[in-house]
Amino acid sequence: MVGRERLHPNGLTGHDIPLGARILRLADTVSALGENRPHRPPCSFAEIRHVIERGRAVEFGPDVVSAFLRLVDERRMPEYHPPTFQRVLMEACQELIPTEISPFSGDQVLEILSTLIDAKDPYTTGHSRRVAILSVAVGNQIGFDEDMLETVWAAAYLHDLGKLSVPLRVLAKTTALDEDEREEIRPHTTVGASILERIPSLQHLSTGARYHHERWDGLGYTEGLKGEHIPLLAQVLAVCDSYDAMTSNRAYRPSRDHDVAMQEIAQGTCVQFGPRAAAAFLSLPDHLFQSIRKARAPVRVGAIERSRFRPAFTVGSAVIESQFLVG
Q1: Residue 121, SS3?
Q2: pTM over cut 0.70
Q3: Does 113 fall in a domain?
Q4: Residues 6+ apart with CB under 8 A from 195
Q5: Cα(300)–Cα(307) distance, rounded to whole angstroms?
Q6: Poorest-confidence range of 15-19, 58-62, 147-151?
Q7: Which residue among 56, 82, 105, 176 is buried most deeply as judged by most CB within 10 Å?
Q8: Which of 73, 97, 120 is the last residue in one of the domains?
């Protein structure tokens, strides 16, 4: 059975599988084997080559295998180059995402993009949605108007867009990152902001992507902004992002308890976190955090998958749940 497509989606075999799909199947396998995984280190190229050769005419089309190995043997297979990848990623986004997003599709775009972001790292599934829920609640406590709450919701969903450019071997590493690996992660803020700035209807969300890792004491990144020079939107995202990171499992550590995370946020006020954003976050009621932890099965509300909460008011096309709007 030549180049078989196993199990899904249509059981195609051999040359019935489109050539592009056959190429992607091999490329995806090579990439996955070369990346770090929680259960194993990256495979050596000799190991990858053995898998590909063994899969010839079984999992992979023989013509694609031959072309791949020929490129490798002739040293014509380019190595991964982050700036090139980032440029290609931004160009692809410009092609895939329309410059004008209708009110009926905006929420769907957010859901699709946030799912892509979370899918890059299996340890952060649902992270973007939880940060969005918490950020809207904090913004409501601060007193943001409806337009600003809509911006908060969308900015939180897309704050980690730039992580699409971070190698999986770094995101899924099972031990603490070294300095070189931290340097590979830091550009995700500018990459995400650059992507958003190139899409007219999403330009206003770039502030959250660019500045959500700034610190009140000026020791954050990307620009080392300090105090009130950090946009309030980014301050809100920073505290919500940090809380969810602390209370979620990571490849290198288990999740922390809610009380421990709240204590760290309190201790980090005016050091890592802006005082207004931190105070608003710390004033959120316990039932909100309990509801987020219990929410597992999303349901469709309007055009976007949201958790099971009663809608309270509409912001543009997005319905924000009353459970998240306290005070």
Answers
A1: coil
A2: no
A3: yes
A4: 89, 90, 93, 161, 162
A5: 8
A6: 15-19
A7: 56
A8: 73
